[in-house]
Design brief:
Elements: H1 5-8, H2 28-46, H3 52-73, H4 81-105, H5 108-132, H6 137-148, H7 150-158, H8 166-177, H9 179-188, H10 197-203, H11 205-223, H12 230-247, H13 255-278
Amino acid sequence: MLKSPARARGAETPAPGARLGLAPKEHGASFMAMHALLLGVIAGVGAGGRDLLGLALAVLFGTLFVPLTAAVSALSHPRLRSRAFRRAVALGLALSALGLLALVRGPAGPLLGIAGAGAPVGVVYAVARARTGARSVPTQLAAIAGISLLAPFAWVLLGGGSDRWPLAAAGAFASFGGTVPYVRERVRRRRRADRTVAIRARNGLVALLWQALALVCALGALAAGAIHPLVPIALVPGAIKTFAGILRSESRPPIKRIGYLETVISTVFAVLAGIGLGLAPLR
């Protein structure tokens, strides 16, 4: 039987299920990007920002950022690498053009600060991905650190004159970064359930400590008069979810349920933290 050239070159055809979509197969990065933008927009509006063109730039930037994450995540797939690389380059150039347009509009100082923070984060992400793989903890945390910068980016473009915008990135990373050890531990339990609370606490210690440290830092900032009380309150649902999810007994937790709960918790955090950061601290 004669075979078509396309069939003869089977290696060039992606295997079933291998697809270069507009959003990553694991949608966490997409939702985090949207939540970071939501946080920044709410905080910017709360601080008095009303620049609609700046808002449009921020939304467009975030909209292009999601397919960029999909392209980057597909680079590790041998049969998608070529197309993913071309798309990543094209979207990277488009995002660079949007960044330059935003820089021309200003305010240049804060935007240069965000870009300056993003450059080393990008380097760390590239090195971590090359050395430890796309799914490693360092790679995922570096990606979340970059995504968290969308929050101050949207805030600065909206205006408002507040100097609290750097706190948006810190808050986003404190909340979203904590999902990495938490979700990894919950997924691990699908393979082996832990019988006692002590064992569950020990295996989920990193997730528990992350939440505790985030709350301590937020309360410290509150005591120093740097943030509104709504900001540490915004972290409480995530902390409750983490402690309850890690310490309670369970067997094969459903992946979809974990994802849905993460989406709800992140949305609540983005709204409450955005409102809190937009409000002036109580003196």
